[in-house]
Amino acid sequence: MADYGHDLVFGTFLTPQAANPADVVALAQLTERAGLDLATFQDHPYQSAFLDTWTLMTWVAASTETLKVSPNVLSLPLRQPAVLARSAASLDRLSQGRVELGLGAGAFWDPIVAMGGPRRSPGESVTALEEAIDVLRQMWDVTTRRGVRVDGEHYKVIGAKRGPEPAHEIPIHLGAYKPRMLRLTGRKADGWLPSQAYMQPEDYAPSNARIDEAAEKAGRDPREIRRLLNLNTDDIDEIAQLALEHGFSTFILGSDDPYAIERFGKEVAPAVRAIVTEARRQRGTTTGPVGRNAAVKAQRMSGIDYDAAPVESVEPGDRAYGKVRSTYMRKGSPGLVLRPANAEEVSQALIYAREQDVPLAVRSGGHGISGRSTNDGGVVIDLGKLDRVAVDGDAVTLGPGARWGNVAAELGKHGLGMSSGDFGDVGVGGLATAGGVGFMARKHGLTIDHITGAQVVLADGSIVRADADLLWAIRGAGGNFGIVTEFELTAYPVDKVVFSTMAFDARDTAQALTRWGYRLEHAPRELTSFLNLVVQQGVPIIQLYSVFAGDDAEAAIDALTPLLEIAPVLDQQAQLVPYPAIVAPQGGVHMGGSPTAIRAGLADHLDEATAGGLAALVQSGETGWLQIRTVGGAVNDLPGDATAYAHRTQNFSVNAVGRTMERINAAWDELVYPHMNGLYLSFDTDPRQERIHDAFPEPTFSRLRELKAEYDPDNVFRQNFAITPALEGAQR
């Protein structure tokens, strides 16, 4: 007796007749209306009376809403696996995760050869199928920059680019009957898909045993492999017995009869579910997600009680690990990534993380330049699932895991905007607790200047609405005080803006910087400009990105024209665009690997001394990339004590990427630091504790220490420029 405890799935097995193509589409739509989960289709590319299965699946997916689609089974010899991987991932993304993949090693070799395919022996066909699975899995895995490499006997893919990534992990089911195919199913597949017509009842147990044995030898739990069956019966008791005695959990009715399909969905499936549910209750059958297999558990790290994780988690060895281990700038190797879905789960995750003997990091979008939202060997609380974006009038509620590109797109639908960063994949949580220097900062200020409320999980796990003191601290030093699970902001009207790009020969670097800085300080507030200084083939080049926050083209031209005088122009263009287009979401997987030796500072002006120091830094060769963002304007309208971000007199935010922390520190400290007045903390990776005083000058720092003693006395949140709690006598 075998019951693997899988949830029950019901579907149809339809014939893709070409004579009346609308009929098979109608049967698939009926499958969905009848409450069934899955529609599958024969695949015989050499059969001219049939529609092409992949084209049909695409059409069906577009004409249904919830129905999953799958070939049953795909003729691999006529489907090149690298191209199939792209096709499957594309359809999965278009259908929002509704693709499954049934594969066959091949049959009917004469027509396959007639179509230009290979003729393979039984052994060769199994080997080819295994190689194809490797190609598919690698093509879908976008967590590495390395190209796909499968140097097989039948499929050679040497360096192909990966992607696109499917919307979900596409399960691969194998149509298998013989021992080698069954063993392959156990080693590498997600499901076994035989047909009832080709098997005898006494075949089920030995076939399952072969799959299970192969799975265990591969370090897998046999329950990882779903057992599917193409049915030639709709008898309720027989199907229930197949589930309870032989482990099948997906039942696919082979019929093109609309009455049979409707009965299968509305009568048979509910009845089978009821019988199986009650029998499992009486037997005490374990159901639900399958735990980690031995191969994954072998990669666990010390100091973490993995089995006690209270919320969804990802650990080394899981397929999803590559997607959550790193940030945009830093490649991390955390021991466990927790993925809570709401404030209550964030609280549970935090309490659990405090009990582990490893470092803690908290991540929203993962773009953070400092790289502090991952670690090596520790626990990461990933807030990516808390990605709510809700707009009511000009009031906006945001989850910390939302990315600003998606926020801007949603605000744009309502004629609203929020100046936040310059890249669409920046996470809300990190930016909205540090400052938020965006492309409209001089017109509208920082992101934190528009935050009116917040829900916060404190260090002890309590969930609170931020009071006045906590809200003050969150706006600029939020990473030190808790995990914000919801932000309330007030947006402002934004329609189209003028976006300009310019490039200059910056051989006279100091003069170009001084001219640009002077013009920006005297420009209308609608103009915000970001300057990137890079060295290309030994020549300093300025790349200038500017936004005029308004749709008055003549006023924009008047504001932008003086910038053309800062240095010899190499290129220029400007266009009127919706603001969300400037910070469009990228949606990519953060894989780290970029330099994380970065220094940052704030400058009141780009006078000759400051510009000379920056030019000398570039000329020293210790940085290949320098960025200066304009602040000032509306940023400086607030007094210095209005938020924990106290820097309300400076006009420029500067940061530079170095090759190593030691070398960039030496050059920066000598050439640039004397001209700086403060620090935007999220852009600096210098670990020296004295940087805390650059980020939080007095009296801000003392007030933060007093509040830290109240809200986080154990200094749990110390990953991002740790503010130590004040001594007990100084507590409020």
Protein described:
The chain is an alpha/beta fold and 732 residues long. The protein has four domains: 9-283, Alpha-Beta Barrel (TIM Barrel), CATH 3.20.20; 299-382, Uridine Diphospho-n-acetylenolpyruvylglucosamine Reductase, domain 2 (2-Layer Sandwich); 389-493, Uridine Diphospho-n-acetylenolpyruvylglucosamine Reductase, domain 3 (2-Layer Sandwich); 496-695, Vanillyl-alcohol Oxidase, Chain A, domain 3 (3-Layer(aba) Sandwich). It contains 22 helices and 29 strands. The strands form six sheets. The protein has a nine-stranded parallel beta sheet with strand order 3-2-1-11-10-9-8-5-4. It has a seven-stranded antiparallel beta sheet with strand order 26-23-25-24-28-29-27. Strand 1 (9-14), helix 1 and strand 2 (38-41) form a beta-alpha-beta unit. Helix 6 crosses helix 7. It is elongated. The N and C termini lie far apart (66 Å). The mean pLDDT is 95.
Count every beta strand, where a strand is a DSSP E run of 2 or more residues.
Answer: 29
* Domains, number: 4
CATH topology of the largest domain: TIM Barrel
CATH class of the largest domain: Alpha Beta
- What is the straight-line distance between the termini? 66 Å
Principal-axis shape equals: elongated
Helix content: 25-40%
What radius of gyration results from the CA coordinates? 30 Å
Residue-averaged pLDDT: 95
Structural class: alpha/beta
Contiguous runs where pLDDT drops below 50 for at least 5 residues? none
Strand content bin:
15-25%
Largest sheet: 9 strands, parallel
The CATH superfamily name of the largest domain is Luciferase-like domain
Number of helical segments with 4 or more residues = 22
Task: Tell me which CATH architecture of the largest domain applies here.
Answer: Alpha-Beta Barrel
Strand order of the largest sheet: 3-2-1-11-10-9-8-5-4
